[in-house]
Model the fold of this input.
Amino acid sequence: MIDKSLVKRRFKKSLAKYEENAVIQKIMAEKLIKILPSGEYNSILEIGCATGLLTRILKKNIKFNHYNAIDIVAEAKDYIKQIIPNAEFIEGDIEEITINNKYDLIISNACLQWCNNPEKVIEKLKKSLNKGGIIAITLFGEENLKELKEYFKLESPVLFKPNNVIFHDEEKIKIYFNSPLDILKHLKQTGANALKNYKLTRTMLSDFEKYHKKHYNEGEKVYITYNPEYLILN
Ligand SMILES: C[S@@+](CC[C@H](N)C(=O)[O-])C[C@H]1O[C@@H](n2cnc3c(N)ncnc32)[C@H](O)[C@@H]1O
Done:
């Protein structure tokens, strides 16, 4: 079970530094906008908007009239209002809240893997689409952070195979760092380590450093692999 209060705490804390570190989320957001089948949607709902990384790219490239955004972290509202002043912000957990309106595009970047039951969320979102509307999402696949999974006993992302998929793609992207400790800092600042509430001792850290350097190095650098997935559904 995903601990939602931990997810909320970690993301709230990481908001200020999120975009400095959200290298992979930026790549995903740009590709998600590129694969949208149209450049124009009357009404849009974004889920898990955070600091508006996707929102900004969307605003530059897509025409729309109404924009609503949801995040479990209340502070995301200020960021979204700066980008789209007339956007409506809804604070809440997408698994719990009722969606009252209907939309032409429901979009979400790197968020739905934080849900306990993404399939159920997708079913709820489908009911909130106008005729001809689409859902466009990215999330992380099975091989995400595979170099860390074994060592830290990370839970695998919740995998799901939704119906009505009109587009699917996935990538494996290596990101390089100077040291294994830089990897941990990077994950902390994107809120991505929320699955486990680790208290790492010095001995554990130095053990992890040795292990990661030995197994996952290229030249002077060490790396982790991200496995983004892109889905468009109707
Ligand atoms: C990795 S960030 C992605 C942010 C943004 N979409 C982007 O493109 O950079 C995930 C965001 O989803 C939010 N989030 C996580 N679980 C959520 C849930 N169940 N309901 C609503 N928002 C959630 C977090 O608070 C965080 O702001």
